[in-house]
Amino acid sequence: MADPAAAPATNAPPEKMSKGEKVFNWLTYGGIGYVFTFLATVPIAWALQYHSRMAPRFTKMAERLVERGWAKNADGANKLLQTVTLHFGGLIGIPFVWAAEKFKVPFVQSWNRTHGDATDPAAIAAAPKQTIWTLIGARITAWATVWVSLSGGGKLFPKSFQTFETEFADKFCRLLGKPARVGVPAALIAEHGQLRGEIDALRLRGLTPGETLGKAWEGVEKRLAQYETTHFQVGRIASLDIFATAASATLLYAVSRVFARKREQHIEKREYRLAAEKEMHADAVPTGRDDGRPQPRIDAAGAAVQKMAAAPELHAQL
């Protein structure tokens, strides 16, 4: 009989990653998980945040989050919804990653044979298998991690985050040779330039802009946002998505493997338990009870005790 205390060992991937697996991971999680996700996310996030039909809904959803207490203020609500939009591209990429994982073993084994890698094919095939649910679980974990990171960073360095987004978008527009803003009134441009000069002067002296100057700058930035071009808006989204997608792709690779390993451990333990119960059932003998249920075999002394209990006359003879 199998020893119930002995736990089955979970098959683990080879300690040293083979050449084929390295190539597969770069193509799948670097190509689909990062490049494809980034290229898909930017237009989706722009449409949800800035398109004429979707922008009012985006603003209304942010207001509802604040009204229901799910966000403290409009900035927190916008950051939450922005993080959600940045992960739609990743959700689209999950089926492609899952499909690629289906062909991982033959691809890796073929690559290793072609390029002289002597890694045991059985060890590659024994690695935990990805499922659509392990990938979805990893994607949800990545979304939560990125949201916490962006929210925390935004609270700790609010001005730095806003400045980075703006400067990245400006450089993106210059790279394409496109204007960042169109139709901005001259008075607003002058006010923006004056405030920017005052803030830069304070920072050169190692000082932080006061609350009054900070609010004035935020007001000017909001008014300027009305004149932003599509290229500037895309650059603003890309400035965050570069890092969000990189973090998500890394977490998708690492966390999904943890989930896959946990899943296979659970399956192995369940199969082992069922096999042990089946073996115990096969060793059972009839008890003579009316229900006919079997019970495990017992030693000779136990059988004698059961016989005496079933026959009262034997007690009398003793």
How far apart are the termini? Answer: 36 Å
Helical content band: over 70%
Gross geometry = elongated
Radius of gyration: 32 Å
Q: Tell me the structural class.
A: mainly alpha
Q: How many helices does DSSP assign? A: 13
Largest sheet: none
Q: Secondary-structure element order, as H and E?
A: HHHHHHHHHHHHH
Can you tell me the residue ranges where pLDDT is under 50 for at least 5 consecutive residues?
A: 1-14, 297-301, 314-318
Q: What assembly state would you assign to the polypeptide chains in this entry?
A: single chain
Give a short overview:
The protein has 318 residues and is mainly alpha-helical. It has helices at residues 19-50, 55-67, 74-85, 88-102, 104-114, 121-125, 132-156, 158-176, 186-204, 211-225, 230-282, 300-310, 312-317.
Describe the structure.
Helix content is 74%, strand content 0%. It is built from 13 helices and no strands. Helix 1 crosses helix 11 and helix 7 crosses helix 8 (158-176). The two termini are 36 Å apart. By secondary structure, it is mainly alpha-helical.
Write the layout of secondary structure elements.
Blueprint (H helix, E strand, L loop, with lengths): L18 H32 L4 H13 L6 H12 L2 H15 L1 H11 L6 H5 L6 H25 L1 H19 L9 H19 L6 H15 L4 H53 L17 H11 L1 H6 L1
Helix pairs in contact: 1-4, 1-5, 1-11, 2-3, 3-7, 4-7, 7-8, 7-11, 8-11, 9-10
